[in-house]
Design goal:
The radius of gyration is 13 Å and the shape is globular. A three-stranded antiparallel β-sheet has the order 1-3-2. By secondary structure, the chain is α+β, with helices and mostly antiparallel strands. 28% of the residues lie in helices and 16% in strands. The longest helix has 8 residues. Strand 2 and strand 3 form a beta hairpin. The chain starts with a helix and ends with a strand. The model has no long low-confidence stretch (mean pLDDT 78).
């Protein structure tokens, strides 16, 4: 990922992704398989990141899922 990508605004807000009243068709495992090998990131604050379960890192205002 290039430095320019980190400065791009996110393409959508969390509430815009999927309607709350409609069940999402993919399971957590299905979603994990789709993103495997790709960086998973979103704009956030340090306070938001510290409240998340699991391992994350913050770079330039972006929260990344930490790969082990």
């Amino acid at each position: 990922m290039s430095r320019e990508d980190e400065d791009d605004p996110p393409p959508f807000e969390v509430g815009d992704v999927w309607p709350a009243d409609k069940p999402f068709p993919l399971s957590d495992a299905d979603c994990a398989r789709l993103v495997r090998g790709h960086p998973v990131r979103w704009r956030g604050t340090l306070d938001e990141m510290l409240k998340l379960p699991g391992m994350y890192e913050m770079i330039g205002g972006w929260i990344y899922v930490r790969r082990t």
